[in-house]
Write the structure tokens for this entry.
Amino acid sequence: MMTAPLQHALYLAIFLFALGVTGVLVRRNLLFILMSIEIMLNAAGLAFITAAARWGQADGQVMFLFILSLAAAEVSVGLALIIRIRHRLTTLDADAANLMQG
Amino acid sequence: MSTTFYIAAFVALLATLLTITRTNGVHALLYLIVSLLAVALVFYTLGAGFAAALEVIIYAGAIMVLFVFVVMMLNLGEKAAGREAQWIAPQIWIGPSILSAILALQLLLTLAHQKAWPIAQNAVPPSQVGIVLFGPYLLCVELASMLLLAALVGAYHIAHGEGGIAS
């Protein structure tokens, strides 16, 4: 069974991460910014899995599990904030939420 | 196995690119789900079957469904999609894209000068992951559970009450 070399999997992780960074920088909709953060977390998880595959150890998969729980926590709080911002400001524009008035 | 990896990697990159360029939220989410499924296949080809299953069940299954629910609850509509199209005009995305490309290029050049490492041929079974998870990493599991509890309480507190879900 021939598998791809380590570099190619890391290249994929790099490109996915760069696409996520681009999404965060370019989009103004909070929902898309949250999705781009998910893309970046997923790319980091791919890098961990790749390292785990290189040495045949389970530690990388354990780290991926923690990234997964982190992503779940981040998404739940982020989506709750998005719902509040949508109700209060009636828009999802990230530039509209620039006043911290209690 | 190698061909499967490259096809899945191509699908993942294409779907991610389409995710960050869509104007409709639901379309972007569907492409993101495709991207996550392709990355799960990449995990499988790398010998991490357990992580691939979790990627499909938790990431594509649970987290993305949460996204879909919220997008449908927000009910953005056609007007929002039109405004999105205005927001991603070329003069807005060209600068950040060049900066991200430079970042990616630097990382690529760092890797390109290394010799090609082979990947271990044996797959890591789920039992080994479980033994490591509840052995040396037990404290991290407890911390993750506390993080999830804090997120649960926090999300309830933020989304509930005046102006939130209940009102």
Notes: The two ends of chain B are 53 Å apart (CA to CA). The first helix of chain B runs from residue 2 to 21. The mean pLDDT of chain B is 86.
